Amino acid sequence: MDELAAPTDSKDAAWVSFKTPMERQLLIDFCQDVSRLFRINPYLEFEKWQSCGDNCYQLTARNLSNDPPLDLDNKLQIEPREDGVHISYHDGLKSSTTFKIESVSEGSKVTIIEDYETLNESERQARLHEVDKSLTKWAEDIQAYLVRWKRWSWFAPWRWYMRKIWQPMKPTARRITYMLLWISLIEIVVIALGVSIYFVEYR
Asked: Can you give the three-state secondary structure of 63-95, one letter per residue?
């Protein structure tokens, strides 16, 4: 992660940057699917994502990165840009999230900026418990997802699984599914090993 240079003039913002192997334009197209971006966040449990107009969506979810978890019911206005996408929030402490994308050697660089400057200082201080603590982990998971997408998106069954099965899952269900797949793989290996031993010893 690269967080050395401030990518915004806001006096109250958080940001994180990372590099990916995807080309700039492909990554811009990827990031303009905002529902997918939010669902990659491992701390966000979706309840509803519903269109409410042109590039406008109603998000109902729970952010598990806050303590206690923060219930969200917010209207999002999405603005596609030439260098990424800008998401404005109708309510809440956070005023916007911006994905900025630029070309670098061997791929692209993504910067996620979360702006909290809209409210006055005293109100922001009173609502510090609402600050989204998932940003760094969200960026890490998007980076890992993009690496997998670059490697496997050519394979139609994988794309179908990620969009139709994995994406709608809650984060806890994804973790359980991941563990079950590994347990199943281990069982298959053990069975194969047992069959091999049988044929070696008794044939």
From this structure: ECCCCCCEEEEEEEEEEEECCEEEEEECCCCCC
Residue 156 CA to residue 159 CA, distance in Å, equals 5
- Cβ pair 128, 21 in contact under 8 A: no
Spatial strand order in the sheet of 70-81: 13-20, 107-115, 96-104, 84-89, 70-81, 56-63, 44-53
In the chain, where the domains are located = 13-154, 169-203
Integer CA distances (angstroms), 177 to 49, 124, 162, 185, in order: 23, 39, 13, 12
Q: How far is CA 115 from CA 37, 44, 95, 112, in A?
A: 17, 18, 6, 10
Specify the pTM. Answer: 0.83
Which residues make Cβ contacts (< 8 Å) with residue 187, sequence separation at least 6? Answer: none
At position 109, the amino acid (one-letter code) is: K
The pLDDT assigned to 177 comes to 59
What CA–CA distances, in Å, run from 66 to 62, 107, 171? Answer: 9, 33, 15
Q: Assign domain 13-154 one CATH number from 3.40.50.2300, 1.20.58.480, 3.30.530.20, 3.40.190.10.
A: 3.30.530.20
Name the residue type at position 178: Y
CB neighbours of residue 99 within 10 Å: 22
pLDDT-derived band at 141, boundaries 50, 70, 90? very high
The contacts of residue 141 (CB under 8 Å, 6+ apart) are 40, 41, 42
